[in-house]
Give the backbone structure.
Amino acid sequence: MTQVDLLVNAALANWKLTVKRTTGIFDELSDDQYLIPVAPGRNRPIYLLGHLTAVHDLMLPLLGIGERQHSELDVLFLSSPDGTIDVLPTISNLKKSWNDVNALLLQGFTAMTPDQWLQRHSSMTDEDFAADLTRNRYSVLLNRTNHTAFHLGQLILARKKT
Amino acid sequence: MTQVDLLVNAALANWKLTVKRTTGIFDELSDDQYLIPVAPGRNRPIYLLGHLTAVHDLMLPLLGIGERQHSELDVLFLSSPDGTIDVLPTISNLKKSWNDVNALLLQGFTAMTPDQWLQRHSSMTDEDFAADLTRNRYSVLLNRTNHTAFHLGQLILARKKT
């Protein structure tokens, strides 16, 4: 393997591990636990599930992998705080979307060449990118892995204390 | 810049951003807030500060950057859960250790060549590493960035709700 392959693989391994751990918690929580805030006055797991799904769904066009699958989630889980919208999708539908979007992402990631990882992401103009080559797709992958880990740290608080 | 440089820079930028955001919360919390668990029955910010400092300190030998600076933190913040040890270092001492360790790490990171990033980390044997080249220093950097982001997600719950 080349150095570039090793570096790309490291980031993919980290993404996969983080998504797997997060999915593990989503699978473990009971329906009741989904509706209890992770800390007083904070987000509920159902909101975190929708929020992470929407953010991952946005990565499809951002990284040139494909079209949005669940833009209906944006108004519920990106532009509105938790608790302000009464009717949300069911937990099982949200879980399905979460898994579907992550499967599409992983398929896209696996097909991407190092050159493609270093291309600009789609919300950058060519001019902006020329001025700052670090704002590439690979950076988005690292940044979004961190975003998932950030919310995983919160989600884990929803589990029963052992 | 070569592809390898761009990939290494992306990971360093992500590390720096995560440490900066975390330090921002540590600097913002009042002494009282440091002693209130982030959620009922969970870790207090003082524990997260000590824990993250110990984990970052461990990265110094792990990545071949230097000697441990604060191994006295291990028994307090790695092997003991929060609430089991009565006397902890002061918040201002912990903050100083946090900043010092991060400064040493950053100095080490900046001096590291791509070849060095792809070397095995010091807790791997040569034989194990030959069998799995992905367990390199760069992977440790990505993984520890995630670890910090994970606890940052919790730490942010300690701030006053706005």
